Amino acid sequence: MNRKDLILASMMGTIIEWYDIFIFGTGAIYISAELFPPTNKTVALLNTFLVFALGFVTRPVGAIVFGHYGDRIGRKVMLLFTLLASGISSGLVGLLPTYDQLGLLTIILLVVLRLILGFGLGGEWGGAVLLLTENFSSRKTFWVSFVQSTVGIALVLGSSIFLILSLLTPSQFMYSIGWRIPFLLSFLITIVGIVIRLKIEETKEFLKIKERNEIYKLPVKELFKFHTKEVILGTLLSGALGTIFYVGAILLPAVMEGLGVISPSQGFTATLIMGALDSIFVFIGGKLTEIVNNKIKILILSNIIGLILLYPSFYIKDPLIVVTLISSYGIVHGIGYSPLASLLSDLFPTNIRYSGSSAGYQFGNSFIGGPASYVSDFLGAISYALYPVFAVSITLISLISLFTSKEKNTLEK
Q: Main site of residence (predicted)?
């Protein structure tokens, strides 16, 4: 395959995967009203965030399962399965009956679909990154920026659809039918993604180890027996950057909308701008990594800026500044996201790379980044001053890991 086809194939699947994740978060206020008991708004939104967080429970499982078979039989087949699992499960959310119609069964079905979605995403990201890093011999951090840009692109896509619908349709329509439209569009986007991915070939580096008969029978066993430290490092770094992202994309808009500081349309606008900036700055982060020839330094820069940004984001209540602050999280996340992907790929040898990079990334996002909105909202319900505490703590731990890791010298380049 030529370079253009590889990039498109790697991007298309991850756009769909992330789109499915973000429309759930972006539409949380509508989902909480339609699919949960008619309690007070705070409890309903907290329950929605809990279901959102539950989707991250199966991401590590997906990482292990798809990573295992991806290291055993190849990257291509797994990328088709991951796409189908999450695309179909997301589309079905748009067909769920309301809580008034089916009661508890509606919530159970929603949880099941979120778990399937998380399972698919668990194997998606690692495979998509390897599709580029294992086919391109040079400038890997820059090329992987295309995959990393899909997070911002998907956020823009999901936010744009919700923004357009909220501006063009009455509130009653949005709460009944409108919020379902973005989910139903997942079916169409998934079909497009499958057609594109059917055209790709296996990666060059995987074919080499296959020819040399260097494939393990149990890649996961080898991973946790000899590379546990690398998995832990990947988990901490991925978790911190994921926390920064979800605070900006999910938590802050919901909190500020709940306080009446910004309207839902302003929240959609802010996350749309954040996504656009994220898509731009992943390339800037990739280019900066090439210029300084040091992934660690760029990751440290990203974490420090995020640390500075957190507390003001919750205490400044001017609508325009709030929108600006939410948008700026795209810059923070984007700068560090490409070097993170390249670093995770470099941490592991080819025959356990799918398992290793997927495990580190998904463990971090599942156990740290994903639950960040729920944990922060829970802490904020105790005292408003506690809203940023979780994110600040995780970012500090990430910085300590970057400064003190024994792998620092070998991974800087």
A: membrane
